[in-house]
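Below is how a single chain appears once it has passed through the pipeline. First comes the sequence as given, then the structure the pipeline wrote out for it. We keep one example in the README because the format questions we get most often are answered faster by looking than by reading.
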Amino acid sequence: MSDGTQGRTGHVYERDGNVYNPTDWAGSPWSIGHQHGGPVNALFATAAEEAAAQADLRVVRLTVDLFRSVPRVPLALNWRFVREGRRIAVIEAELTLPENGQLISRASSVMLAPTEGSPRSWTHAPVPPLALENAEEVEFMGENAKGLYPPGFHWSFEIKMGSDEHGPAAWITTPLDFLPGVPMSPMQRSAAVADLTFGLSGQSLLRQKIVDVDAWRVPMINIDTTIYWERPPVGQWFGFRHALLTDHEGIGLAEVDLADASGRLGRSLQAMLANKPPSVRKAETEASDG
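Resulting structure:
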C-alpha cells in the first residue's frame, strides 16, 4: 500500500458515475483491506442528500447497517424511493460490488417536509452542548496506537475535549475532501464523524476519569449508526455529549447528543459488538501464516 495519508489533506473517494473508488484516506484501523465506517456513512449521506433534493424534503434520519466489513475496493452506490410523498419520503440505499452486484452494505433514510415559519411547540433539551472554545485539542490516537493500526480515515481526525457542570464532551472534524477538490457537505461530514459515537464518547469518559475501564481488554466495534438531525447541520466541527454507554455479554449501546456551530443538532446511536484485541488478532494471523 502506498501511504497517501501524510498530513491531513486529501480526499476520500474518486468517482466514476455511481462507482466510488476509495483512496488510502478511506482506510480502516481494523484491516488494511477494509474501509473505515466514517467514509461509508458519508457515502450514504450522499444518497440521502440526492434523494432529499429530488423530493424537495429535508433529511431527518440516516441508518447505516454495517453487517460485514466494507472492502477498500471500488463500490457502486445506488438508492431508490420506498415511499415518495409530499411530506414524507423514505429511501433505501446500497453499496455493491460493480462487477457482480454483491451487497456490501445498506442504509435507509427518512426525509420530511419542513413548515416554514411554524412556531415551535417543544423545546426541552436540558443539557446544552459544550462550547467549542471551552474544549482543548487532544490527540485521538497516540503513537503506540498508531503502531497497532494501519493508516486511514482515523488519522485525519481533529479532536477537542472538555468538561463543564454537565459532564464531559468532545468536538470532532476531519479536514478531508469528499472527492478531489470537492469538500464534504456538513451532512456528509457530520455523518462521517458520527462513526465515532462510541469511540469518542468512551474517550471522553476515560479522559475525565468518570469510568475506570480497561478499554483494550475487550474492544467493541459498532455494527450500525443511526443519526437524527433536528435541523440541517452547519459548519465543519461537530460536538458530542455522552448520553449512554453500556454493554452486556459482549453487546453494547452508545448514544450521544450532537451539536454544531449553531447549537444542539440531534442525536447519534450505535449498537456494538465485542471484538478481539489487536494483539490477539495479530497472534492468530501469525499462527495461521506459520
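The mean pLDDT is 90.

See the next section for the split statistics.
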